[in-house]
Write the structure tokens for this entry.
Amino acid sequence: MTIAAKPTTAGVDKQELEARVKAMYREVAEAPQGEFHFEMGRALAERLGYDPRALDRIPTAAIDSFAGVGHFLDLAAIQPGETVLDLGSGSGMDSLLAALATGPGGQVLGLDMTAAQREKAERLAHEAGFGQVTFHAGYIEAPPFADGSIDVVISNGVINLSADKPRVFSEAARVLRHGGRLALADIVTEKPLPESVSCNATLWAACIGGALQQDDYRAAIEAAGLAIETWREHPEYRFLTDSAQGASATYGVKSISLLAVKA
């Protein structure tokens, strides 16, 4: 994603943030057994609610690099033949699961700014025969797709990393057809974060520093012309490091998933 200025995040160094995000998620792709602020892999995916039978049908290496924060594919209700856009597709786990739902007659477009993630996802999709899945270089604030060309937009633990969340939601609404769905999981807060957290690029890259207060998050979605139909929390998601856990406890940092529809 691109790191654009926004009043509530003006103090964060946007170039440093993008560099840290790219570096962290390159490690997620290349060394998923490393130490991170967050959990990864199949055990996390199953605890969040992913269907083990579906996970068995996609490459293990994509699951190993899964760093999502919730489960939302049941909310997305992807149908055969639909076109799906995955914002911040990473190593491709959600994209490949979406492809199981679209079938060969559908299309899944993964969008990610980190080359190592895209390259891994492309290789895994090709090796597993997912011809309906393609991965594209780009930023979630500027998806390079036509107006009204997408049936479902999905995203997992990525929008919190953007410094221009209203633009992300506006662009999601732009590419969605009328009646199209936005289904995602993300990190939000109960209390607004202080500058000591929101201006910390390391905590941004760890999916905490950029988290938006939940009422503001909902308002940004609705301002884009999307109606929220379902909102749920994922208490089973947790951060690993002391600094991340401390911020979570103090400011109510938590995982949510939601479904919103374009009128």
